[in-house]
Amino acid sequence: MGFLISMTIKNVSGAQDPYYRTFQYLFDLQLWISIFLLVALLITSFYLMIKYRASNTESKHVKNKFHSSNLEILWTVLATILALWLFFLTIGPVTTFAKANNKHADVIVKVRGYQFYWNITVGDQPWVTGVNFTTGAYNKIVFDHTKTYLLEITADVAGVIHSFYVPKLGFKADAVPGHTNYVYLSNLVPGVYDVTCAEFCGAGHYNMPARITVI
Fold first, then answer.
1. Which of 71, 148, 154, 157 has its CA 20 to 30 A from that of 166?
2. 3-class SS at 156?
3. What is the DSSP letter of 130?
4. pLDDT digits (tens, 9 = 90+) for 55-90
5. Predicted model pTM
């Protein structure tokens, strides 16, 4: 299952910029560590259940052991080392991502979330997103694959929190009233990329899909 999830995310990627690849590596690393720990836990549990089942121990004297200081110290130390290692691997890319507004981009994209639509300005070209659910037609937002983009993502100050999520580009950024989050995009691959709001924002939440076309 982990392999399928990992490959699915890689196969839909539409961005090849360095920090996207870094986040993909960190995701894969944590996914496989989690799978390893889960499998190890299941194997250990089944082994102990079989070894100490009633039919296997009723004729033997099995000493109950409720506490082991050495074992508790061992798993606490190992878990702490693992957590600190992942923390230090992650802090650099996260800091770089958070400082995306320091990067130079060819085009500034202003994204503002409303109830219940996105107002997106690409350079000097404004777009109001939406979809006709009868025809399935989207208002098309166009990016040029030869250019870099800096997304400035926020929400209407009188509104609520939204989340601008583009799965195929590998990012999700909260749109918070009165606060701006930044996402830098480069090396885009031509294609069509669906946008959704990943934060439940009210009764019209369903009406916030959008579509970005990279040409």
1. 157
2. coil
3. -
4. 665 656 666 666 778 888 998 999 999 999 999 888
5. 0.67
Which amino acid is residue 103, in one-letter code? Answer: K
Residues whose CB falls within 8 Å of the CB of residue 101, separated by 6 or more in sequence, listed in order: 150, 152, 180, 182
Q: Cα separation of 194 and 172, whole Å?
A: 12
Which of 66, 98, 130 is the endpoint of a domain?
Answer: 98
Q: What is the CATH number of the domain that holds 66?
A: 1.10.287.90
Beta bridge partners of 140: 211
Radius of gyration of the chain (CA): 24
Triad 42, 44, 46: Cα angle to 5° = 70
pLDDT value of position 16 = 56
Task: Please tell me the total count of domains within the chain.
Answer: 2
| Same domain flag for 7 and 94 | yes
Q: Token pair of 48, please? A: 């102990």
- Domain range for 56 is 2-98
Confidence of residue 129 (pLDDT cuts 50, 70, 90): low
Residue keyed to tokens 């839909």: 12
- CA trace torsion 52, 54, 56, 62 (10° rounding): 60
Sheet containing strand 162-166, strands side by side: 140-143, 210-214, 191-197, 162-166, 171-175
The overall average pLDDT reported for the chain is 81
pLDDT for 71: 84
pLDDT score for 6: 39
